[in-house]
Write a structure and sequence with these properties.
Elements: E1 8-10, E2 15-17, E3 22-24, E4 27-31, E5 43-49, H1 53-66, E6 73-80, E7 85-95, E8 111-121, E9 126-127, E10 131-133, H2 135-139, E11 150-152, H3 154-168
Parallel strand pairs: 5-6
Antiparallel strand pairs: 1-4, 2-3, 4-5, 6-7, 7-8, 8-9, 10-11
Length: 169
């Protein structure tokens, strides 16, 4: 896929202010159309060790709730050091399911942070692949010729895992 280097801005670990607290991502990115320093990123990556997975999930909920929908995707990467395995979770805002009973539809749809994908990347297998990051959610525009969703297959995910362990040695 062809992307110009200037199409995506690395926000790094900048601090963002929510309704009653602030948070700093491990890393995050936003499209160039969000040029102000205070503009929220569209994709946030949070990482930690397995014992912190509950905290990472709380972080995902914070980013999605406090950005008022500006953050489109949160990717959690949990490192399981004892098994040299990565657990990945993709979180987005999704509409709450309507109740089954015969109530009238609400005027506004409630959105909630929702895990939409879970992957395990172990030394000998990958489950849940591929990981797909939607182009429009990251760049806030339709893809042009030669552009499209970011699709990470088993081979690429295994390379991520290998690179994590090589960097830890």
């Amino acid at each position: 896929m062809r992307i110009s280097p200037g199409d995506l801005i690395s926000v790094g670990s900048s601090t963002f202010h929510g309704q009653s607290s602030s948070k700093e991502a491990d890393t995050s990115f936003k499209p160039t159309c969000r040029s102000k320093q205070t503009d929220w990123p569209t994709i946030v990556l949070e990482s930690g060790y397995t014992e912190y997975l509950a905290r990472l999930r709380s972080d995902a909920r914070w980013w999605l709730a406090n950005s008022a929908g500006d953050v489109k995707t949160v990717l959690l990467i949990s490192v399981q050091e004892d098994h040299q395995t990565l657990k990945l979770e993709q979180w987005v805002l999704a509409a709450l399911a309507e109740p089954v009973c015969g109530r009238a539809a609400r005027a506004s749809i409630q959105m909630t942070a929702t895990k939409v994908k879970e992957l395990t990347v172990a030394p000998t297998f990958v489950t849940g692949a591929p990981l797909i990051l939607k182009f429009e959610d990251i760049f806030l525009r339709a893809p042009r010729d030669g552009e499209g969703d970011f699709i990470f297959d088993e081979k690429e995910l295994s390379t991520w895992r290998r690179d994590v362990w090589n960097s830890m040695q």
